[in-house]
Amino acid sequence: MKFRFCFTAAAVLAASMVSQQASASLIVEANYADMNGQSVQLRHKGANSTVDAGLMQFNLRADTDLSALPFDVNGMSVDAFCVEFTQGVRSGWHSYNLVETSQVFSATQSQAIERLYTAYHPVVGDATSNAAFQLALWEIVHETSANWNLRTGDFRVRTGGVVRDLATNWLASLDSIESQFSLYVLTNPLSQNQLVFSGVPLNTPDPVTSVPVPATLGLFGLGALMLFRRRKA
């Protein structure tokens, strides 16, 4: 039986800020537009399936507040990679939470994904590298053994040739890479989670988790400054 869960249609991004709270997430929506990759055969926990592996593009709504997003977008679209190939993508427009990878994955997984992005996001763009990045991401997320190997373990790639070898080489290099980006995941309990393929450099203010200064505190500070100047005069 042939399964094509990852790229059947739909779901990802338009923004609206949740009130001024620490660790607040963005509620986002969007619609599937395109995918560039290739078909591969996988074996996961004893079950075989055929899926499309590659980079997906989602269009944003015209009223999306791009300034609220903690990463860059291409015009009015955003790229993403599938996280849950075993779950289907719901068609149409749906609401997703945009959260940091650390809120979805273990520390080891989150760090590995950030290192993978740091080292190889500059070369992603063609069908081969897109599929390789997707396979490497799935291996990190779904493999439960101590070693990442696309030929053995709970998650295996049965076809792919060059793509599988490329992903294997990338995974083998991760220990020597220092992460330079924070990444985000679009989550929905009824639809496939997506890794947003656009990072923000570390130590950059993050609108998803930053805590705005209360307006009353700002006014108090301004009033104190004016009083100080008046007494000095």
UniProtKB/TrEMBL annotation:
Parts forming coiled coils: none
UniProt-listed InterPro entries: Ice-binding_C, TM_Gly-Cys-Arg_CS
Residue span(s) of domain Ice-binding protein C-terminal: 210-232
Tree of life domain: Bacteria
Keyword annotations from UniProtKB, A to Z: Signal
Signal peptide as annotated in the record: 1-24
Record's keyword annotation contains Signal: yes
Protein name: PEP-CTERM sorting domain-containing protein
Source organism phylogeny: Bacteria, Pseudomonadati, Pseudomonadota, Gammaproteobacteria, Alkalimonas
